[in-house]
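Figure 6 in text form: structure in, sequence out.
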């Protein structure tokens, strides 16, 4: 499957003379990476390079991690033919390296990659190795048959696509000054139809910083040290969080979020399937999320709440929310006197639950942190089913309707954010020593049946 974003490859480097590249012999429609022996130059110090993972012939998709071992490594670059596709991160000892390759920029089928290593104190390549992989992006996100892609971002560029994404909530308020809020993209703003208040400026769900809130971060495009909080590299987006407000009593962290400008709602004839591939931070006190809430619609009402669908919530603490837990939920909030028969979004009933799904939480058989997972929801006007890596976790009945009725219900905006702390994720404190951290997003896609 081709990337939904343009990917600009650069041709860097040339194959060394007299060093033949192994010829790829495979049928069309498959992609394999063939491992070749490291070839050190004769000059000391000796440099070696070998592929540690994946194994030769492995099937890969989306952003794929390559791991190398070697000796005296300083720089390792990965090429497909003459085009550089990745630069590896080399550890301080010079004995291992890791590269992230955006396979969506490669054609499905057999692909031969070549890694070239430079040693410390050398300007010339000192070792090479090759790897054959089978690229298969066409079915990688495991969307159901009969659904067609209608929206997506594969983060194949160099910066966040601001034509698709905003970086504040759709509500008013926030901790930033009027001058700072004036820098927000005007196309991300709305207006309260009654009061005229500008919407789209809210930078935290943790309050205004004068008292404890449910979270302990503010969302920024650039933190107080000048670091970008949204970066795009190797075919994925990183939402960064930094411990750069520790002098504040409550909102002690700076972090990042995205909100889709396009809004979505299923119909009975055309349900939706929303999916994302993410890598969660392995940091106590972190709270990455992927969720839906009411957007601006046509502007005749403020964005309503509820409704809300939480496709992924991953608060990480030592109080029952460990590295193997993924939360899902549908939200209600109502006055029992006004709605004596229950929430307008209900009745909410669980119609399916995996054996490892307990209430609103799924317990995986191993950590879901610091590795890529695909998380999705199949959404109809009156139900939601959740999936992880193609496995159905649970289904519940739920109506996407505001408390004020269908006439005041707006379509959903997609939200992805990296919250920090608060009484849930931060129940056992926040591990400041592991900052900065990132919530990595390989793609976001919406399919319609």
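Output sequence:
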């Amino acid at each position: 499957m081709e990337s939904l974003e343009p990917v600009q490859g650069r041709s860097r480097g040339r194959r060394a003379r007299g060093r033949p590249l192994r010829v790829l012999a495979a049928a069309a429609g498959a992609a394999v990476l063939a491992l070749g022996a490291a070839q050190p130059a004769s000059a000391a110090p000796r440099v070696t390079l070998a592929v540690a993972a994946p194994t030769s012939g492995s099937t890969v998709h989306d952003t794929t991690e390559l791991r190398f071992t070697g000796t005296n490594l300083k720089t390792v670059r990965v090429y497909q033919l003459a085009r550089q596709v990745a630069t590896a991160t080399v550890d301080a000892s010079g004995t291992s390296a890791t590269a992230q390759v955006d396979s969506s920029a490669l054609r499905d089928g057999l692909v031969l990659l070549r890694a070239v290593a430079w040693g410390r104190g050398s300007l010339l390549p000192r070792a090479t190795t090759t790897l054959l992989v089978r690229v298969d992006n066409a079915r990688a996100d495991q969307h159901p048959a009969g659904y067609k892609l209608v929206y997506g971002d594969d983060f194949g560029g160099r910066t966040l696509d601001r034509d698709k994404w905003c970086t504040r909530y759709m509500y008013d308020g926030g901790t930033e000054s009027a001058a700072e809020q004036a820098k927000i993209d005007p196309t991300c703003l709305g207006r309260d139809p009654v009061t005229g208040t500008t919407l789209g400026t809210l930078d935290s769900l943790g309050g205004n910083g004068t008292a404890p809130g449910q979270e302990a971060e503010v969302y920024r495009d650039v933190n107080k040290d000048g670091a970008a909080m949204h970066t795009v590299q190797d075919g994925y987006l990183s939402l960064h969080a930094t411990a750069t407000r520790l002098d504040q009593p409550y909102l002690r962290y700076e972090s990042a979020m995205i909100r889709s400008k396009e809004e979505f709602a299923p119909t009975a004839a055309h349900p939706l399937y929303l999916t994302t591939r993410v890598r969660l931070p392995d940091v106590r006190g972190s709270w990455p999320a992927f969720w839906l809430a009411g957007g601006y619609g046509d502007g005749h009402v403020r964005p309503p709440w509820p409704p809300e669908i939480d496709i992924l919530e991953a608060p990480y603490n030592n109080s029952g929310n460990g590295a193997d837990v993924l939360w899902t939920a549908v939200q209600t909030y109502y006055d029992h006197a006004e709605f004596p028969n229950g929430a307008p979004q209900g009745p909410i009933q669980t119609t399916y639950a995996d054996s490892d799904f307990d209430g609103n939480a799924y317990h995986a058989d191993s950590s879901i942190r610091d590795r890529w997972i695909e998380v999705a929801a199949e959404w109809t006007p009156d139900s939601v089913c959740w999936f992880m890596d193609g496995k159905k976790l649970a289904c519940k009945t739920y109506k996407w309707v505001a408390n004020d009725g269908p006439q005041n219900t707006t379509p959903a905006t997609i939200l992805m954010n990296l919250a920090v702390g608060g009484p849930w994720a931060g129940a056992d404190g926040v591990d400041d020593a592991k900052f900065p951290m990132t919530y990595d997003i390989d793609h976001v896609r919406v399919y319609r049946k």
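Caption detail: Residues 191 and 197 are 6 Å apart (CA to CA).
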